Amino acid sequence: MNKKQGPIGVFDSGYGGLTVLKEIVKTLPQYDYIYLGDNSRAPYGIRSFETVYHYTLECVQHLFNMGCHLVVLACNTASAKALRTIQQNDLPKIDPERRVLGIIRPTTEIVGKYTRSRQVGIFGTTGTVNSQSYPIEIEKFFPDVTVYQQACPMWVPLVENDEYNSDGADFFIRKYVRQLMVQSADIDTIVLGCTHYPLLIGKLQQHLPPGVQLLSQGSIAAAGLKDYLQRHPEMAEKCSTGGTREFFTTDDTETFDRQAGIFFEAPVKSRHLSL
After folding, report:
1. Which residues are catalytic?
2. pTM, entire model
């Protein structure tokens, strides 16, 4: 076993995971982090289970090769379509001492604490919604909660093309909000089941009924990681604590740096990774 300490890896298909990393860094600033965005193959939300699994595993292995003992999939689609297979089939062969965590479970573990009506909505990519990951996981923790889902295929392109504050964005936000709320007028809590969606919160609040709560995953994932490291001191000891941040993209670094700054809310200087 490699006993040398290494950074915590954070993976996403593109930029959205930076909203998660931002909150993780706020909560656990002492650790070193490597962020990898597979921008050249994004978006993952429209791809098959098999494709997402292969892409995710390849990127996880790159993070392992960079010295990470622990990798967080800061991507709902990868968490929905690849996490379980990687945990159960691949990690025992690659290195049973390493760990890969997702961001769906931490969210589903707490959602029942927020809803009073026991009617919860999910906004997600087509891939995340089709995977049924949220209803399955929420049922484990809160069997009395009814889950309604709505795929929002236009939201990621709006965010990634810097159109999320435009008048055109209102049309697609209103459309998907209506399609969710028509399923049940009693939905009082909605999970933003994609890490791009926090950038749409301002617009969403304009179109949602008053009193509906929005749960964003960044702070939830950060609290979940903190709890995990407290419960697994043997893993915490393997994570280096120099307070550094490194960024890698599989696409053009100049474009990545410009866009990434919007999500991370701080300047980003990335390096290119060839797959």
Report:
1. 75, 194
2. 0.94
